[in-house]
Amino acid sequence: MPNLALDGESWLLVLTGAGVSAESGLPTFRDANGLWERHRVEDVATPEAFERDPALVWRFYSQRRAAAEGCRPNAGHLAIAEVERRLGDRFLLVTQNVDGLHARAGSRRVVELHGSLFTSRCSRCDRDPFPDDRLYERDLPECDACHARIRPHIVWFGEPLFPADIHRIDSFLRAARAGRPVFLAAGTSGNVYPAAGLVHQARATGAETWLVNAEPAENGAAFDHFVQGRGAGILPRLLGP
Ligand code: OAD
Is 77 in the same domain as 124? Predict the structure, then answer.
């Protein structure tokens, strides 16, 4: 089993996707039995869907809230949190997952690139996003300030990433040039951009690039190393001292 051989010069950027939470019991999107087999993206994960049928969209995200709350971080999440404790500010985790499991495993330097299941915000005014773990079926929440609908704090298809997140990733990669940059993607099919383009950005800073995934990824050609298999088994050994 290979090891990243991280040392005092290493800067590690990790990108995770749904595969990292699979062994906690959460379905991925594009595998057999994945979420996109049972739901159409256009019905539940676009601003137009929310406009058309907010109750359906809230039902989908309420089910996902309940599922995420009912499961626990696995050995993959824990290994990622552990390597952060060793590297400190020379570590950054970018996750496409909205399930909160990385934070529950102890990760602190986390960019939630696609938002968070446990945060909501107003769909109209600029009131700050707020923590929210309630389940909505019929009575949909409204903004206290402007009475517009409250929506999940999720980056839907067709929406841009949060500028502050892009800035944080760019700054990290700039700083990483001072040392030995390493990029690791885990549990992601490499289908969804801009996240799938992060490997190219990392390569441009001179990073060595690693992929841990159950199957070859769509953007797999951009990686120097591919370790095929399950995250909970591989990540503790790959990231271990
Ligand atoms: P996908 O469902 O596209 O890909 C999950 C990947 O994880 C697949 O390539 C699997 O082979 C792999 N996998 C499954 N189980 C695994 C395991 N135990 N260990 C390691 N790998 C495993 O999920 P994402 O790439 O995260 O966006 O999808 C990206 C985005 O598309 C999501 O953030 C979501 C989705 O539509 C939004 O909802 C905005």
Answer: no
Q: What is the pLDDT of residues 148-180, one digit of tens each?
A: 999 999 999 999 999 999 999 999 999 999 999
In a domain, residue 3? The reply is no
Residues lining ligand 1, judged by CB closer than 6 Å? 17-19, 22-23, 28-31, 34, 45, 96, 114, 155-156, 187-189, 191-192, 213-215, 217, 230-231
Does 5 reside within a domain?
no
137 in the same domain as 57: yes
Going from the C-alpha of 228 to that of each of 7, 96, 98, the distances in angstroms are: 24, 20, 24
Residue 138 binned pLDDT confidence (cut-offs 50, 70, 90): confident
189 part of a folded domain: yes
State how many domains the chain has: 2
DSSP helix/strand/coil, 13: strand
Whether 219 and 139 share a structural domain: no
Q: Is the pLDDT of residue 128 over 90?
A: yes
pTM: 0.97
* Residue 212 β-bridge partners: 186, 227
Closest Cα to atom 16, ligand 1: which residue?
19
Residue 188 belongs to what domain range? 10-26+73-114+160-238
Q: 55-102 pLDDT, tens per residue?
A: 999 999 999 999 999 999 999 999 999 999 999 999 999 999 999 999
Question: Catalytic site residue 114?
Answer: yes
Given its phi and psi angles, is residue 5 left (phi above 0), alpha (psi -120 to 50 degrees) or beta? Answer: left
CATH number at residue 188: 3.40.50.1220
CA distance 192 to 102: 20
